[in-house]
Write a structure and sequence with these properties.
The protein is an alpha/beta fold and 606 residues long. The chain has 4 domains: 180 residues, Rossmann fold, CATH 3.40.50.300; 154 residues, Rossmann fold, CATH 3.40.50; 61 residues, no CATH class; 87 residues, Alpha-Beta Plaits. The protein is built from 24 helices and 22 strands. The strands form 5 sheets. Strands 3-4-2-5-6-1-7 form a 7-stranded parallel sheet, sandwiched between helices. A hairpin with a 4-residue loop joins strand 16 and strand 17. Helix 1 runs parallel beside helix 2 and helix 5 crosses helix 7. The protein is flat and about 85 Å long.
């Protein structure tokens, strides 16, 4: 199997699991030998003579399910009559039912498919002695909490239960308290710690330069073999398509692909036929791929745990790896949060210059030419014609032509490649030596747009249950045919502000004119435009106040949307308007030309 010495997690877990009634929570990073840590003792305790299911192993994704099943079959190759079966969604359930009826001592499953088989009465778990939850934190994040509860409730109480997780969250602790008895917590490294052998680097760029920065990073490492993580399926497919069009050996992996497509993609990647895999977090979860050199985050995930799992794809089995993040200014705060959680420091990277990239690629071409194995026997019949054809070329000319053919496209691209400006940290550049307390006084409405972006106002905020995701979905739903790259989003209680590329600002404003949320009309406009019509009621109340109190100093007639969003000003204007309406109603109720008598009933009908 290739093991000479047990990994730390195997040393801790295997002896404990060989006992009876020993529940375990094991916190360890990916690539630390977890599959063998639970697989070997589980197989050791299985009775091959009995065809009943004696062990259940749950995993969050189909890929990880197949991977674990493959490893267990390899471990049990010389154990007669022991059957390991993988059951997962996306494939024929009839064939899985037939295999279960023949008997499988170990079931490796995704939660949804196992629940389905349990409801059909095919998966019988009455004799299960060992339950393993691999990547338990991800299963809970993906919404499998109720399924896990149902599965654990359907197996005997006298069992070993093992939870493997890279991070320890509240849901993991809840599952442990509900279903584990006197469990032992085994921590390899530290809680929620990042992989030890991984370097963490971030490159700060403008949003419009993200793909250009990705190309430079990939070009600078000619022998890169890595995964590029994206946030959405759409972004994953777009980045993969762009890389393929630009001549890179890349493939996409996400949930919109069929199971056959995903299996083929993973097979090509594992065999090194694909150099770059562009994937979503869920699709790539639990992938065990050897010799990954880099993980590239095409934007940071919202959850620190997801970053831990992403970076854990590389630096496995004692080897070094690099986790690179391409971020915007607005993501700088996430870097600090991740640093605190994983206990590792990020290095601020500087994008390589075109000259450096071309030099590296040239050395790669020269190395490949030197290492080409020549089979004299195969090419001997063709050499006379080749010599005759190329006889007029000198040695220098021939070398130039070979290098130009292999290397010319890099020279052509970087000769005209636009410069990528790496912005300075806006906070430090703008604040300088400004006291920290003063920096916090500014609110979201005073923010200036990033260079090349226009800041827009929208009349929806937190009170309307509108957050970043809702704003992005609303814009994309109404601005069809064009993908709008939304930048920084600032939320207040009554309204929000978001940035879009300056060339798309007019299009967004135009398309959003007919937008509605329920019965409410959506207002989108530039944040710095003087507000003239959106606050008619407030302006009307101010007009009444000026007419009734001429001695009051005249205020500005126009305000920006940022000023209009001030909750204190809106509250004061609302009170003033209410007061003026009350006065007007009272005036209409008691006409000035006559004073009604106390018993005059006609006053109520005037």
């Amino acid at each position: 199997m290739g093991y000479e010495h047990p990994m730390p997690v195997q040393e801790e877990v295997i002896p404990y699991l060989l006992g009876v009634g020993n529940d375990v929570i094991a916190l360890a990073q990916t690539g630390t030998g977890k599959t063998a840590a639970f697989g070997l003792p589980v197989l050791q305790k299985v009775d091959p003579k009995s065809k009943q299911t004696q062990a259940v192993i749950l995993s969050p994704t189909r890929e990880l399910c197949l991977q674990i099943a493959g490893d267990l079959k390899e471990y049990s190759r010389y154990i007669d009559d022991l059957h390991v079966l993988a059951v997962y969604g996306g494939s024929s359930i009839e064939s899985q039912i037939r295999s279960l009826r023949k008997g499988a001592q170990v079931i490796v499953a995704t939660p949804g498919r196992l629940i389905d088989l349990m409801h059909r009465g095919v998966a019988k778990l009455d004799a299960v002695e060992n339950v393993v939850l691999d990547e338990a934190d991800e299963m809970l994040n993906m919404g499998f909490t109720e399924s896990i509860d149902e599965i654990l409730a359907g197996v005997p109480a006298q069992r070993n239960t093992l939870l493997f997780s890279a991070t320890m969250g509240k849901e993991i602790e809840r599952i442990a308290k509900s279903y584990l008895h006197d469990y032992k917590e085994i921590v390899v490294g530290s809680r929620n710690e990042g992989a030890e052998n991984v370097n963490h680097i971030y490159y700060l760029v403008h949003a419009k330069d993200k793909y250009a920065a990705l190309k430079r990073i990939v070009d600078y490492f000619p022998r890169i073999y890595g995964i590029i993580f994206c946030r959405t399926r759409l972004e994953t497919q777009e980045v993969a398509d762009q890389l393929i069009r630009d001549g890179y050996n890349a493939e996409a992996l996400h949930g919109d692909l069929s199971q056959a497509q995903r299996d083929l993609t993973m097979q090509k990647f594992r065999q090194h036929h694909t150099q770059l895999l562009v994937a979503t977090d869920v699709a790539a979860r639990g992938l065990d791929v050897e010799d990954l050199t880099h993980v590239i985050n095409y934007g940071l995930p919202d959850d620190v745990e997801n970053y831990t799992h992403r970076s854990g794809r590389t630096g496995r089995a004692g080897k070094r790896g690099t986790s690179i993040s391409i971020i915007h200014l607005r993501e700088k705060g996430k870097v600090r949060i991740i640093e605190k959680v994983i206990g590792k420091k990020f290095e601020a990277g500087v994008l390589p210059e075109p000259q450096e990239i071309c030099t590296k690629q040239l050395y790669k071409v020269m190395d490949e030419l030197e290492r080409i194995e020549v089979n004299d026997t195969e090419i001997a019949p063709f050499l006379p014609e080749i010599y005759r054809k190329l006889d007029w070329l000198t040695k220098e000319d021939l070398i130039k032509r070979i290098v130009s053919r292999e290397f010319g496209h890099f020279l052509r691209y970087y000769a005209d490649a636009p410069a990528i400006e790496q912005p300075a940290d806006r906070k430090s550049a703008a604040d300088g030596d400004k006291p920290r307390r003063d920096r916090r006084k500014g609110d979201a409405t005073s923010h200036e747009a990033e260079e090349g972006y226009t800041r827009l106002f929208i009349n929806l905020g937190k009170r309307d249950n509108f957050y970043a995701r809702e704003i992005i979905n609303l814009v994309n739903r109404h601005v069809r045919g064009t993908k709008i790259e939304i930048g920084r989003i600032d939320l207040t209680n009554n309204c929000s502000f978001f940035e879009v590329p300056s060339e798309d600002a007019d299009l967004v404003i135009q398309k959003m004119k007919r937008a509605k949320v329920g019965d409410r009309r959506v207002v989108v406009d530039t944040a710095d435009r003087e507000e003239a019509s959106s606050s008619k009621s407030i302006s009307h109340s101010r007009k009444n106040e000026r007419n009734s109190k001429a001695e009051r100093p005249t205020k500005k007639a126009h305000r920006t949307y940022a000023e209009a969003a001030n909750p204190n000003a809106m509250k004061a204007a609302w009170k003033a308007e209410k007061k003026s309406k009350r006065k007007a109603a009272k005036k209409d109720y008691e006409p000035a030309n006559r004073k009604p008598k106390k018993d005059d009933w006609r006053q109520f009908f005037e």
